[in-house]
Amino acid sequence: MSLDPLLTIASFGIGIVVGLTGMGGGALMTPVLVLFFQVPPLTAVSSDLVASAVMKPVGSIVHLRRGTVHLGLVKWLCIGSIPGAFSGVLIARALGKGQEVQDVIRIALGVALMLAAIGLTVRAYLRLLEHARRRDGRAPPLPQGRPTVDLRVAPTVALGLIGGVVVGMTSVGSGSLIIIALMALYPGLRAGELVGTDLLQAVPLVTSAALGHLLFGDFQLEVTTALLLGSIPGVWFGAQLSSRAPGSLIRRALAFVLLASALKLLGVPTVTTGLLLGVVLVASVPTWMVLRRRHGFPALAWRGAEDDVAVARVPEEVSSRR
Q: What is the pTM for the complete model shown?
């Protein structure tokens, strides 16, 4: 396969989305490779993970310098995620050869994207609840300084293990899935602290998965090069726009795109996919308006504070592919 300029252009566009929202890199790039460029699923996962491993460390260094990382939490996550990610590659490889393994990866990717879309929706609602509680004085003020949490070792290691396996098999989850679980396990962490901790733990996680795919996957240098050529400047450009663009609206659109990709990867017919997406679109807008009004917010808000997550506000935090 020769270097495809259209793939570079597509990765530039996805990089902009990542720069604006801090998420969606693997969750968007891999299905784009499979659905639009006819890249075999295992090749898409392998190449995307290797490209991601090149870009993730940048933002984590910024967070380390700013002190928005809980190193103890990172340690226990990595104890589970590093072997989990490598195991995910081996599991994918052991499931079969040729078209068989490609079909398994495609289905696993579809399920992971479905979970990511649901996770983004849950995350938006949790942020709405958090803002409402703090506005009404029903929650303590946000802590200052370094994050302090009571470590829950067993659930944290289990989260790392499960997340690592998912990332190793599909390239999805190092940001969009794991950070949702972190919010549930450690609600006391601020958004920036969640991002910093998740971002640092994702570096060895993705590196382990990338190494596994280099050894046992179907890595193709041409695909990875095209991804890097487009996504690196795309992320930078998106970061420059992040202070002006409606990040909350983009994240909702991202969830919609992930749902559409998941349905296609799971083999849902085009007509059925269109009907399901139409139902979701028609139902979700009034539902979200009702939820906002129930919690005392205007029905519509382009840049409501309750919807903005720190990951969409700080350019340094979006330098990684999520």
A: 0.69
